[in-house]
Amino acid sequence: MNFLTMMRHKYRLMLHYLGVILIIMGFILLLPIVMAIFYPSEMNEVFSFVTPASIVIILGTFIWLMTREKINDIAITFQDGGIIVVISWLLICLISAIPFILSGQLSFTQAIFESVSGWTTTGLSVVDVTKTSHMFLMWRSIMQFFGGAGIAVIMLSSIIGPGGLGLYSAEGRTDLLLPNITKSTKLIMTIYSGYILVGAVLYIFAGMPVFDAVNHAIAALSTGGFSTVPNSIGEYNSAIIEFITIILMFAGTVNFAAHYIFLKGNIKRFFKLGEIKFMLFILSIVIPFVAFFSIEPLYDGLDKTLRVSIFELVSALSTTGFSTVGYGDWNDFGIMVMVLLMFIGGGTGSTAGGIKQYRIYILAKSLVKNIKGFMLPTKAIKEIKVEKPEGSVFLKDKEIIQISNFVFLYFVIYFIGVAIMLAHGYTLRDSMFEFASSIGTVGLSVGITSPSAPLPVLWIQIIGMLFGRLEIFVIFYAFIKIIKDMKAIFRRSKG
């Protein structure tokens, strides 16, 4: 097979996958109309979903039929998978905004913002939940459910193809639960859905209305943070509901492969995992410090102080974005810790965002190794060992360099976002908090995110959320791959 034929087949296969994604997306768009059964007064909003769903299903089916030839000798690499994932995410976010626009609720920019926030499981919102129908509130949660699972996982649990591993890796998932990738993705969806069902039931027993319980269970497990009430979890003022939410947020921020270990009953091995130990260590340090130095003066009683401290810090580290209080009266120390936790984020292979605990953990171990290098003989310095779900791993310098490069790019994008917010007159404190929440896909806000926010501010947050969810290198690799392929095809076709 010559080069041009191979490239044509490869991009035809990529287009085939995009067709499948569009078909799946069309059926996902139809899910919110189920609410019309329970809330007949909202029947007039059904067309806001049926119209785009019909168009997308027809278009996806046409693409799928036109590209369904079998190509057994073509495999999708990580870079190829990145192209499919990035283009799919952009298309899905655009399509998901259409119901908001058709219903007249949001402008184009606001609708894109809400859609991207939902699919990236961020939870920042420009919607007034007190004036929004049950159908659209459920649509926000549905976006977070499927956004948390990931496009590649959704597709791979529906189809089997030669691009499995490339797509799986491009979604930022590297730890397989089972040797077979299709079985792994189906198991992820089973675990994910099972936790949400249990969470919803627990919320109902704790006194939360059924509709709210389902939505909050999805938002907590997907580390999304969209709420159906104005004051988020604080609306209920219930220690039991807060406790259930903390458990779900923890579950959402833990690697799915680690969940598999836990559910198999290997509890000892679960708590030996590097990320788990690192997460518990961080929280054990920051919770008492923030409680004493930032929150204690604001509330009466140790129980309330610890309750607020634990909930808000877990919400920030897990990148969920639920809250029980506002942050207007917090001092700078408390805000600084929240920003740092949003930087760190959740576990790899989970629904959470941020730099990821694994990367920070590795950089910390690398720092210790370098310090030892100045004090001990070279032979006495051990390789960096990390306990991962698949077993003990010794890291190579190449991986540490890649992690360092990722963190550097993360902060370059972060400071660009902060600078744009500063240019629009927001304070340094508020700008740093809000964009840390955006790029970390957290969803906590100090008030900058609103329907009245300037368009450039909303768009830089949209870009930040996409970079935070899709992983910086995946986006860069995808666009570089497209440019290189187009140049190569042009040179070969001319020759």
Description of the structure:
This protein is mainly α and 495 residues long. Helices cover 67% and strands 2% of the residues. Strands 1-2 form a two-stranded antiparallel sheet. A hairpin with a 2-residue loop joins strand 1 and strand 2. Helix 5 packs across helix 6 (134-149). The radius of gyration is 23 Å and the shape is globular.
Strand coverage percent = under 5%
Most strands sheet:
2 strands, antiparallel
Spatial strand order of the main sheet = 1-2
Task: Please estimate the helix content.
Answer: 55-70%
What's the overall geometry?
globular
User: What is the rounded distance between the termini?
Assistant: 17 Å
Query: Count of DSSP E strands?
Result: 2
Task: Summarize the topology.
Blueprint: H1 3-30, H2 35-38, H3 47-66, H4 78-102, H5 108-119, H6 134-149, H7 151-156, H8 164-170, H9 181-205, H10 210-221, H11 239-253, H12 256-263, H13 267-272, H14 274-295, H15 302-317, H16 332-344, H17 357-375, E1 385-388, E2 391-394, H18 397-423, H19 428-439, H20 455-470, H21 472-494
Antiparallel strand pairs: 1-2
